[in-house]
Request: fold
Amino acid sequence: MKRLKTWGKRTFFEYEDSDSSKISIYYGTDLKWKVELSKKDYEKLIKEFKGKTVPIGTSLDKPPMGSVGEWIIKNLKTSQIAYILGAILVEDGYATKKGSEIIFK
Reply:
């Protein structure tokens, strides 16, 4: 289990990459919320934005057009977790952070 700060560095979350099919993310007060993201969806996200610089889009209901947050809302059957996924993408080496933008490698 890894513990990271969210995109805005205000809170923590934990995640584990325990098998080849999913990433389990624990967040919220006392890490009481859990979301599972399939590796297939994680890879789709990386492929969609490869080589691009886009807004991270952490707004829960109206992220900017073309942002990671908008993509999550349109493509994943999960809550809007761009503020968590952005941090994971940076930690995993797929992207870097520049202010409110994420730069995919």
